[in-house]
Specification:
By secondary structure, the chain is an all-alpha fold. It has 2 helices and no strands. This is 23S rRNA (Uracil(747)-C(5))-methyltransferase.
């Protein structure tokens, strides 16, 4: 995945950007197995992937008013 802000050194929020999606899923799955190694897990589900780009969404919700008591 290419990101102009990452390439310019202006943003470093995507810690996985240098790895392919498959490498990311493998590494994250291994991390999960390591973190939960001490717990009884009956079945591991396969990871669910998504699109490589344009997957982040941001929502802004504004709440105003007061609660009548």
């Amino acid at each position: 995945m290419q990101c102009a802000l990452y390439d310019a050194g202006r943003c470093r929020s995507c810690q996985w950007i240098t790895q392919s999606v498959n490498e990311q899923l493998s590494a994250k799955t291994a991390d999960l197995h390591r973190l939960l190694a001490g717990l009884p897990v009956e079945q591991w589900c396969s990871p669910i992937g998504g699109p490589e780009q344009h997957f982040r969404n941001k929502a802004k919700m504004v709440v105003s008013g007061s609660v009548a008591r």
